Amino acid sequence: MLEHLKGAAFMTCFKNQFLLLIAAFSFGAILTSQATTTVDAKAQSAKVISEKKMPVKAYHARKGYIYSNATLTKIKHNAKNYPRTTFYAQKRVTVKQANGKKAVYYYVNNRSKSVRGYIWHGYLKSISITSATKEKPMSQKSLVKLINEAPDMNPDSQIRSLKKINYTDHESVFDLGYNVMHFSPRSMFKDNQATVYVASDKLTGYAQNAMNKWNDALKTTVFKMGTKANHTLTIQFGNGTKEDWDGLYNGKAIYVDKSHFADPKYPIGYMDEKLASQISIDQYWTGVIAHELGHTLGLDHTGYQEDLMYAQDSGGNVIAKYTWKKPVVKSSTGLDGTEIAKISERDLNRAKLTKILGYW
């Protein structure tokens, strides 16, 4: 879940979705991976019946887990995070699952072999190996160097105008280089557009304003209003006071804390007077929803205070290029982007990048 905590701090807790990337980004410590998820081996372990080499074929993965071992006890990746990555298979394994049924898994890897393992063959869609190999991507080392030389957390036009194959083959490099990830199901954005149902009239105005901010910034209709019967994303009230959040995105819906929303003094009545004088309550709640909409686009937090997607520290990030415990750069006002409901250039360019990566 992606949360907006009280006092404009942010936190995430999408567990077991960190990416493995062996690359040396130049700024600070790198969060390279979360430990491989181990399932209950006694209950879930599969028995390998046969292994067979096969002619190399290219695939796209639609969904499913990628396991590091053929006995299917260690989950290494979630294929839904690599919607445009080309995988190559040259080995098939037949296993007897814990339920007694036989299944065929392919051992796959992307071109750089940074993402590899066993996946059920039914989750793969065959593509032309000619089209998959007609262009060669730049090396991972060269791409990391290019990202390090570009503005931090700000994928400029040079980064966004590379050959398409670089985005498909080095998706995890872009994810870690710019704190982005495929948070939303593919069904949420149809033709790069999400249809939003707002469950309470009290939230409608704030939601529309937040949607407009993204639509205006991206110069296209990314979010449009829908109905209860026709929508791909819901915005509704939730109970975040106990867990200390004002806004939350759980991969399916956006929640706004009902208790704080109903407090006529919140948040400005609890802030420093000088800071409070620069914002309004309406502005704040618009910012909270806009922030959560940013998560639907695949944006994790940054350490730049002026950003809409700012977080006070990196502790809750799903993915982070480096760690921070205070603003990497403070804003000129002392307020963050959510509090003033403003999309920064970094926010905008990262959203443009996630569109290229196919996250929305």
TrEMBL record:
Keywords: Hydrolase, Metal-binding, Protease, Signal, Zinc. SMART domains: ZnMc. SUPFAM superfamilies: Metalloproteases ('zincins'), catalytic domain (SSF55486). InterPro entries: MetalloPept_cat_dom_sf, Pept_M10_metallopeptidase, Peptidase_Metallo. Residues 1-35 form the signal peptide. It comes from the Bacteria. Residues 185-332 form the Peptidase metallopeptidase domain. This is Peptidase metallopeptidase domain-containing protein. It comes from Lentilactobacillus rapi DSM 19907 = JCM 15042.
